[in-house]
Amino acid sequence: MFETILIANRGEIALRVIRTCRELGIRTVVAHSTADADSLAVRHADQAVQIGPPAARHSYLNAAALITAALQTGAEAVHPGYGFLSEDRDFAEMCAAYGLTFIGPPPSVLARLGDKAQARSAAVASGLPVLPGSTGALESGTEAKEAADEIGYPVIIKAVAGGGGRGMTVVREPRDFLRQYAHTRATAQAVFGDGRVYVEKYLEGARHIEVQVLADNHGNVVHLGARDCSVQRRRQKLIEETPPPALPASVVEAMGAGSVRSAAQLGYTGAGTYEFVVDEDHNFTFMEINCRIQVEHPVTEMVTGVDLVREQILAAAGHRLTLRQQDVRRTGVAIECRVNSEDPTRDFLPTAGTVHEFEPPAGPFVRVDTHGYPGMRISPHYDSLLAKVIVWAPERDQAIARMDRALQEFRVEGVSTTTRYLRDVLAHPLFAHAKHTTSLVDEIGGRTL
Amino acid sequence: MTDAEHLLAALTDHLVRLGRASTFPLTQVKIQAGDVALEVVWDPAGANGHAAAPVSAPAAVAPPEDPESTLPDGSFTVCAPTVGVLYAAPEPGAPPFVQLGDIVSEGQQLAILEAMKLMNPIDADRPGRVARILVPDAAPVEYGQALFVLEPC
Questions:
Q1: Which of A236, A249, A298, B17 has an alpha carbon 20 to 30 Å from A304's alpha carbon atom?
Q2: What is the pLDDT of residue B43?
Q3: pLDDT tens per residue across span B81-133
Q4: How far apart (Å, rounded) are the C-alpha atoms in residues A86 and A60?
Q5: Is A148 exposed, middle or buried (0-12, 13-18, 19+ CB in 10 A)?
Q6: Cβ atoms of A382 and A56 closer than 8 Å
Q7: Residues of chain A with pLDDT under 50
């Protein structure tokens, strides 16, 4: 087992990883930017190393600085959290070259799955259903247009190197295609440094459902059920829950079994997520694989009792999974709401500033994963996630009522938050009756009801 | 002379003797006559041209929070541009790039900062006199950590 782990991340996930490390008796080192020198993660870690200025590309994305910090502090492993370098094949390779264990899948798997067109081919090879689409990256606008016409509109143009809900464009009219194609390519080139795109059928009014898998280095893979992440705004998830409401258990089992088969075939290791779209007839099709711990992982933890970060660390240390598929028991319902420091009345504009008051909710079956505290300064350099409120209850109705109560308790002064907006979504009849799809937030709009 | 004035004169004599005895310049003096107090602050990093002064000693003594306090206007700090290990000399056993009191020109190398086997030169971006060396040889440093204080000359 590792004695020291360097955490190459910030915010609530850095704190989340520190907590599990402490429970495992592992010393933690947090690498941080100057903007995060006063963060809770820095305060809770056994050691902190300042690695760069606020701009992520010079700190949290600076592989050389992170590895130097790891070597200087005697870390044997690096936990990349989510975002930043968590799915970066080059970083994983550099870690290996310097004798550090990257807590995640091997670089070869990251390389393959980081390319969305290749990931799609891999899914097809392992028998997972995919939506009609181009078989690989497209070379020209004409070729892409031909593919789109054949698939039938609406289609979605996706960046091969995309991720985190960015680098995608939905095209509904054939005449818009070439313009959107050029635009997506240019954006992909600018954001990901790779302009290649592919085209897929787009499902209107579908649900976003994902399967959590865990794999060790010895070929053992299990799944821990599915999460419904259909409440999204501009492809950023707002509310996640498990089990997916009103989805037959047999469908979840089929998705889970397919994901396990695919992960085993790919040689996947650690924690990973298979994302699917599910139509109203419960047909599921593969979208992509996220090679990291997910923001919404706590809902799975709440219903299974499995600490996913612990399993990630144990797997990276070469331990065999102690969990067999038949041991995975899921009980009750868990919901997560992402409370962001954004202003819903101003088109969800992120609000930076000082948090004067910060009173997170508590009480029975409420978990809050946050890096917030009174006096905290929210830097404009990073994402606006302030807290994840997670609740558990035996039934969904009770979980919704509990979440509403928790959000109502949450007091934040100094910056705007999305708590009020989240409560409105929870109260929406479509959500309450589990009839919602990824278009729910668009239907509600940005207004507070 | 009153008692207080006697005491003050005696304290001042003490102070002058202390100043002469010290190899380091005094940076702060506080004399109090009532109840007798004499407070003297040395600047250990300010010893002029003292080759014997160990480079590593000042790091423990210098106030890290404000390395430019008590220094002349126009003094400036050279900070670490990245996380790494600071080396004071071009190779082990060689004389250091600079010593306290040295006058350096713009662009002159002060140290090496090693990060992942890359040797990054740390240069003076302005001319000055080396007033403080804040980090001992071969010490790990963080991004933005103050390494040297240079004063105008």
A1: A236
A2: 55
A3: 999 999 999 999 999 999 999 999 999 999 999 998 899 999 999 999 999 99
A4: 10
A5: buried
A6: yes
A7: 448-449
Tokens 């299990």 correspond to A222
pLDDT in tens, A149-167: 999 999 999 998 887 677 8
Per-residue model confidence (pLDDT) at position B30 = 60
Q: Is B18 on the interface with A (CB under 8 A)?
A: no
Contact state of B143 with A34 under an 8 Å Cβ cutoff: yes
Burial B117-152 (b: 16+ CB within 10 A, else e): eeeeebebeeebbbbbbbbebeebbbbbbbbbbbbe
The band of B4, judged by pLDDT with boundaries at 50, 70 and 90, is low
Residues A278 and A156 in one domain: no
Residue A300 within any structural domain of the chain? yes
Domains of chain B: 3-42 (no CATH), 67-151 (2.40.50.100)
Do A192 and A215 sit in the same domain of this protein? no
Contact B142 A51 (CB under 8 A): yes
**Catalytic status, residue A292:** yes
pTM: 0.85
* A23/A44 Cα distance (integer angstroms): 13
Nearest chain B Cα to A49, which residue? B142
